[in-house]
Amino acid sequence: MNLINFILSLGVALLAVDMVSGADLPKEKGTYAIFNTSKGTIIVKMLEEKAPVTVNNFIGLAEGTKEWTDPKTGKKQKKPFFNGLIFHRVIKDFMVQGGCPVGNGTGGPGYAFADECYEKGEQVKGNVNDEQTAILVWTRILIPYLRQYNGNTPSKTVNQIYKDVTLQKNGKSIFGKTIEFYQKETGNKDPLYKQGKLLHGVSYGTLCMANAGPDSNGSQFFIVTKKDGCSWLDGKHTVFGEVVKGMETAHAIENVKTGANDKPVEDVILKSVEIKRVK
Fold this sequence. Notes:
nine-stranded antiparallel beta sheet; 6 helices; 13 strands
């Protein structure tokens, strides 16, 4: 290829990138994620006010500014996370899921962070003497601590409570101590709040975090394709975006042929995720 042809081909390539990047963005002010897939493009408006931590995490992974650990090598790195991954789980009339670096739903970025499903209610302090407070302590303080040590923590008290809760199927063994005790025991300094109003339902066209239970968010996400939404998931999955264009692409993905574990027979690739800001 001579120099002129190379320059011309480079210009065409750059023009193509610009066309995809622009992707008919809405004029409404906000931050948008452009999902460039092998089936087409999906544009999502990020819900920065409702789920700021989740949105920042997603943007950091997409742009390569947030450090993550490669599950295949164990090495920490900063580079665009989502480029080239597949939609590993697809269920018709439900959702399409991606964001797993190993392609089977077991991988993540090497860390986990809390849900953003509800507004913060009143701060809770002092004695744990009711079921609701015990559940808060369990989900917000003890579970993250147990997960950190794979169920065998340095705290004999926490380990015993874990055994009791799993056997008794209730939180009564958490009673009798203070929230401050549990915070000190686990090194968790975050204030504990009662559950406020639901921030956003898991409705049609929403971008949500996939998880393995409370406060286990990482990189996996799903887009809801069920027309009447998934109300049974409200409060269990953080909603951090809404599709504003490209639901036909999401439906094209949900309709591909799947095999074991709802995995597409032929890979549906997430070529890239671009972040665009409209001011």
